[in-house]
Amino acid sequence: MQVLAQDADLGQNSEILYVIEPPSEKFWVNASSGEIYTKQPLMLNNSDLEIYQFIVFVFDGGSSPLYSNATVTVRLEPYNYHPPMFLTLKPLIAVPYDLVVGTEVVQITAIDQDVHNNSGGIEYVLNGGNASDFFLIHADNGKLMLKQSIAASVNSFFTLVVMAKDQGFPTLSSQIEMSFEVTDINQFSPSFREPYVTFSTPEDLSVASVIGKIQAEDRDYGSNGAIMYGITQENLYLPFSIGETSGLLTLIGELDFEKEGVYYLQIKAMDGGWVSKTGMVNVTVVVTDVNDNPPVFSSSEYIISLPENSDIGSNVFDIKATDADSGVNAQIVYSLIAGHVDKFLIDSSSGTITTLVVFDYEQEQNFDLTIKATNIGGLTLFSLSYFVIQISDVNEFKPIFSKKEFNFSVFKNVPAGTVIGKITATDDDQGPEGQVFYLMFGQKKYMGFEINKISGEIFTTRSLRSQGNSHIDFKVLAKNPGVITGTNVDETLVRVTVIDINEAPVFTSVLYVANMSEDSPIGTSVITVSALDEDSILDWNRFFFNIENGNTNSSFAVNPSSGVVSIISLLDRELWSHYNLTLTATDNGSPPATGTTNVIINVNDVNDNAPKLTFNEAHVKENQPQGTVVARLNASDSDLVPNQGPFTYLLVNPSTDSAFSLTSDGVLVTTRTFDREQISLYQVLVAVMDSGIPQQSSTEMFHIKILDENDNPSMPRNIFIEVKYFGSSFQGGMIGNVHPEDQDESDTFNCAIKSGSHNMFTITNGTCELWSSSFQGEATFNITVEATDQLHFPVNNSIYVNYKGFTNASIDSCILFYVSTSSLEEFASNNYLRFVKALDSLFNLQASKTHVFGIKQIGGEILLLAAVKNYNGRYLSKEVASGISTGHKRLLEVQSNVTISHITSDPCLNSPCQNRAKCNKNIYISQEVAVLESEAVIFVSPQKEVFNCTCPVGFTGTLCEDDIDECEVNPCENKGTCVNTAGSFYCHCQGGFSGSVCSADVDECLRVKCQNGATCSPTQDGYQCKCVPGLEGEMCEHFIDHCRSTPCVQGNCTNTQTGFSCHCPFGVSGDTCEEHSYGFEELSFMAFPPLDRRINLISLDFATMQKDSLLLYNPGGSSSSREFFALEILDGSMRLSYDLGSGPVRLHTNKQVADGYFHSVTVRRIGSMGSVNVDNCTDTENMGFCFSQSDGSSLERTLDVGSNMTFGGLRTAEYILLHPAQIKTHDFVGCIRNIHVNGILLRPSMALSTYNILDWCPRASPSPCHSNPCKNGGTCHDLWSDFLCECKSPFTGSNCATEMSEELVLRFSGIDYIQYVIKERFKRDYLLKKLQDSDDKEDTRNQNVFNIKFKTQDDGVLIFIVHQTGFVLLKIIDRKPVYISKDTSSGHLSEFTVDSPVADGVWRVLSLFRNGQKIFLLMDGIQVLNITDQRMALTPVTVEKIVLGATLTGDSTLKLSGLIGCVQYFNMNGHSLPVSGHSMMVDVWPSPSLLQSNCSSSGVCHPPPCSDEDTARSSCLTAHCKNRRRCRPDVQNGSCICFHNVSNPTCDVCISTAESLRGCSEAQGSGPLWLIAVILPLISILVIIGMFTVQYKARRQNAKCTRDSTQQKREQGTDNAAFCFNDNRSAHTGQENSHDPMSADQQKLGAAEFYCEASSSSVQSLPHSEPEYYEIGSISSASPSKTASLKLNFHEHLDRKEGVTTEPKHGGDLRMLVAGFNNEHSHEVWAKKATKPQNVSSLNRLKIDTENSQHTPHCNKSFIQPEFLEPAQCLTLEEISNLNNPLEQRIVHQASPRSSMMMEVSSESDTDSTFTGAGFDCGLFSVFSDRKFTHDQSSLTTHSFRKQGPSQPNTESIPYTKFEQWGNILNLHLPFRSYAPVFEDIARLPTEHSHSYDIQSDIEEII
């Protein structure tokens, strides 16, 4: 179509331009004519029509264009091919004359095939006929209506023509003619004469035959009387039809009497009235039978068996046939027509077959007959049957074996079911009775064999391995079928020889399956295969394993001996997801036998592959709005789910003005519009991350191409077309695309020739391709082409077409110019015309003209072919032209602005062919024309070749530049690997082959067999066996023992195939068990400088059973600072806490770590972002279980802490009070290793200070509490290196097995007591709980109950409780309980006496109860005292000590007698306070008088043995005890046992008398006489020492300081032998703080203050340093055990004197006494009681001068080594004689003025001595085997030295106190060599002292 517009203007203003705006994808308009065209074929897609609308704008050509527009609608419809088609109607329609006007007469319907046979859209009109006046039709539905009455037209006939028209294009129509009859009223119905009609027909009546006629009558006339017949609907399926008008009943289907004999049907008769009337008749069709069925046998073939020897006339079979006919047609006659008719007879009527002869089975077995059955109807029919008679056998003979003995042999390794042989027996019977059955019988019937009862084959039923080299005999019976009668059987003997053979090992499983992670390290064990070899020969059942097949990439190896399959190269599931290894087990038999199995190894996926983008390119059109979707990225991942998606996408380093944005799900959208003409390609770096763990990611450059839109107008173009043709003329053709210049690259242009030769040039419609007609000659044409992009104004292109031909002469004379240029298009546009002009100018000077007739690109150069012809028409020779051009090459380059590489006439001169190919000059002109296009020049010429290359073997290509891959045909033989090289190849040959194609066989390994699965490889010297890992030797016959060199520092070494593995003890790690962990005991810590302010990277491994522990704590630098950093274990899981000043951050994990096993924890804090990771957890999705991370929302970024950081605990409890909300724990007990802080490995030696740190982990086994050692409901506490049973009242003992009862009680003699001091750790626990508990529950916090059950008859002290502000005393005065409370600050004293006696010898229970400010005292459950006391505070923090049985105070007013009586139990708040040993709450310090001297109970508290003689000397005074027991040696354990020590209900006391002594001695027998010589001198010495004793009792009351130096009375300490005070586990005696019981003042300071800063004399943990007490007389020495003690190192300037080497244990004890004697001060000090013993920490702060030297002596305990102990022995005469040596002979030298305690040592020692000092009055000795010197850290000694000064030697401090100690020591039954140096020191004592004792304390020395 075309749109037209008119413009009334003139000139340019009237020029009109048509444009469709916006552009349509379907249509375009010719800008000048207004003709509208389609851009593409228009199709209807499943629709009836399509409507397109677009707007055409028209612009004029004025300077300010005016425009108007019109909307164009295009309706696309299908073409109308078919007219409407009417459906069938009655040919004559009867209409009653009385039909009411408006009644529908009939509906006419037409359908249209164009609309799928639909009737919609068809219009109906009346188009003729004489009935038009009477009828009208509805146009839309075709209903024909009566328009006017037809009553006057009875019996008239009308016609009517109806036309149907469709709505298609073009419109089609059709018409139909209809006939009508106007009838009278239809009065009568059709009727039949009879209601029932019967017809008879034979069954063989042919189809379409008439059976009969049906006749009905109707008394109406015309159409009302016209009758039509039909069969009722329900009878239509019958094989009959009836004529519609004739009434003839016709057969339409075959009849069969045998199927259906009678048919019943109804026939209706209808008249032709407007409303039809109907009559009905019932018709019966009877089918009669005909003989149409032959007789039929039940089977076409019969097989009957007949026994042989049957009598003649025997009945064989009764055969029957049936006939489907009836009556006479069904009668049958039988006859024999073929076969053995002479031997059988058949009854013709019954079909019974009988025999005519006697049959013999052995002569003939089968007979046959053909039997005929015939009916006797009118048409004779018959059938045949084949009858077979088989004669059956009768058993007439018995089976007989061919021989009486059969011999067979079989290998023992054959599988079950193997046939070893066959036996046969024959039977002359030919039939079944001649069949032989075989049965085995006899004793060896079940020896692994069975016989096939039919064939006689003997086969194995089980393995014969256990029967190798043996013979087996059994019998076989042959029988006929049926029961054995004895006459129908035969038997034979079978002998089988079982031959031994080497059988292959059998794997325990035919298939092994294992799953391995693909990141499993090399050396990981995959699975262990095993096999069994049941060969009886020992050498044959040794085998080795090997991997035979399936080991892709050599990923696995099998240990040839153990069968362990391990990984030897890294796995990669993406390359090999599973392996099917074939493993062999080959034995050493001859020949070797091999068993096989398969190992399926499935490689499980780990996230080791980064996702990759599935595509990396997309495009988007320019000018699209912001937010346009560019692409939806997708990625692929070689890993499996869940290590694949969903993927996360992001742009890497996007700039703020980035042109694109990317959502996390991969939707790439634009952020601005684009202009392709500015930027046509964008690149963004995309990162894609998967969902695996650990997460993998990859980055890839994504390219977005900007597609072009027609948004730029076209520009005119000047084009110069050079047409060069070969020969006489140009043949014509396309010479170039002359489209306009346009920045858009996707525009389509339409061009038309506006001016020029239309005959010579044409342009194809819709394009800009310029075609030329043929042309001859040389000429130039100028044409103008109008071009448009169909959107903008058209432009005019000027085209210049130049034709010029060349000939062979041109080719022969051509010269070649090689021009360097970037592209052919660039050269043609910018340089071609200039080059041609420059070349013409050059040769114009030579009176010649040039002709460039060819351009060809070769590599990076342009080849120009030119010829030069002079003016007379002759060509210059190429040599001359080339020479001229070469001479002016520079001129040509300058004028044409090109670089000419060379000019030649020979193309092969520069060897253009590669790879040594031969160049052949051969200028060839092709028939094909090449069109080389550029913007300004189009060069049209035939294609040319100027040379060709002859390639050597192995190369191909135009320039022979391509290498031929010779390996494609695989020339290498014998599985050699082909490697392609340049122009050739070579073969990598397999072992044993050589030659260029591996054809030569030189395999030395063919004659060598490497052992144990090794592989043989040929070498230049022969061969080499490559052993599998773990084997060595020339033939790989030896197994490598990697454990031979003992590589494991600790633990056990296990040899493996690839090396060894060390199984380390607990707490030890490293490949060779070389790395120890550090043991942290109670209240231990390591101090380091504070943490970094900005970054904290902390990692460590730990193991503990303590569910609430402090691993790390760094508090703020001041009390006001709230910043801190802490790592704790709370309720068994980790918690990281820190505060940077803006509030605390708490990170929790839920994984339980307090289980006794090592766990790792990694803590990171960078700025405010913190995280904690347990056991290298990678499941970051499961936040909170093993990983927790803060959100980093805090504005603070730095941690400002000035205090030191501690690992394992707190230095003091001060931090708890200052910052109660920061931490909830204070201590760590366990082991720690691998502590790293910001990449630095921390060790105890690097610490600023340490305490209670072991260099090893003391835990060697699982928790002892797992075995439930605590009895009677006791609670087991895992102390890490030990355990403790916390017993419930009234049970006691190490495992709570002993019940405190009236039969088992603790006796107090008046000087006995037990002191309890609340542990520092318990105080801290209580303090933390109290500070952190928000609810102050007074009813529970302030409730304290002390219960004591006792029995006494004397006055004395029951309980003495010292707290911070005073004390509480419960005592008995005048047999009545008295409550005393004193406030020391105010001096207020309260005393209350209960008027109820308790010292009556009856068991009493006193309960002291405090609730708030109320104090209650109950006696036997009855309240006897109720007072108010606001001053008494008995919390664990305020209580300093509790003393049972004494007061232990320096207050003279409280010097009261102790308890004399028995105590059954003493508890506090329901917890029994133990008499000795461990306790979670208190330190227990019994008085020395309670410690056993010589005897112990059966609990064996004391290890030294004694002899019968020694027993006589023990003070076991039992003669007058009620139990009348005797002293005797305990033969069970070698200890002295006093049997009277268990208290009885009467609580009697054994009195020491002379008679009892004699009784005990007599019971044992008198000792040898030499004992008198020993005892008497000792007694004399004691008397002398006693002269100097004035305050012996005062020294004995110093309970702490004299425990190891006081010899109590012999009866003391023997009454409580049932209680084990000195047991290694229970007798802690204050060791928790590494010193003796501390006073209240010291307890306030806390054991945590007993530390020293690290230096050359740092405090170190000493392994195996738990105090253990060994009774020697009344001295209790402490030795290192498994818990920590202090190890003090001192400066080198301390004097190290030579010491006694003989028996250092006892000698050390005595030498300390000497040292103490030399340094002793006045005797008043020794008389003081140890009421406030100071620990070393007090020395750090106290400046003690001469005035306070009278205060409490500072007594500490030292530690001995258990190996220094020895049994106590008696003195010999020789030893006693040594005591008489002159004093002068024993004086060697005097004390060094620099000595602290050891002032003199024996010169007999030739080595440095190690001393062990007992904890006596004043002196602490530390003993080390490495430093070997002693040092006094007693403040008391220091005080005395300062008091006396250099000029005041204390000669008066030698008196009774020391001599009394020495005397007591002599009663210890020590060997002489142990204390002989004592006497030397006594003799060496000076009378005057002039030494200057400039001694510093330990802490001062450390500082």
Give a concise summary.
The chain is mainly beta and 1903 residues long. It has 22 helices and 123 strands. 38% of the residues are buried.
Question: What report would you give on this structure?
Answer:
With 1903 residues, this protein is mainly β. The chain is 10% helix and 36% strand. The chain is built from 22 helices and 123 strands. The strands form 38 sheets. Strands 87, 88, 89, 90, 91, 92, 93, 94, 95, 96, 97, 98 and 99 form a 13-stranded antiparallel sheet that branches. Strands 104, 106, 111, 112, 113, 115 and 116 form a seven-stranded antiparallel sheet that branches. It has a seven-stranded antiparallel sheet with strand order 110-109-108-107-114-105-117. Strand 4 and strand 5 form a beta hairpin. The relative contact order is 0.03. The C terminus is likely disordered.
Keywords for this entry:
13-stranded antiparallel beta sheet, 10% helix, 7-stranded antiparallel beta sheet, mainly beta, 1903 residues
Number of distinct beta strands? 123
Estimate the strand proportion: 35-45%
Q: Main β-sheet: number of strands, strand sense, barrel status?
A: 13 strands, antiparallel
- Helical region count? 22
Straight-line distance between termini: 114 Å
User: What is the gyration radius calculated from CA atoms?
Assistant: 64 Å
Low-confidence stretches: 1335-1341, 1492-1571, 1590-1614, 1622-1859, 1868-1875, 1887-1903
Report helical residue fraction.
under 10%
Broad structural category:
mainly beta
- Mean pLDDT, to the nearest integer, reads 77
Tell me the overall shape: extended
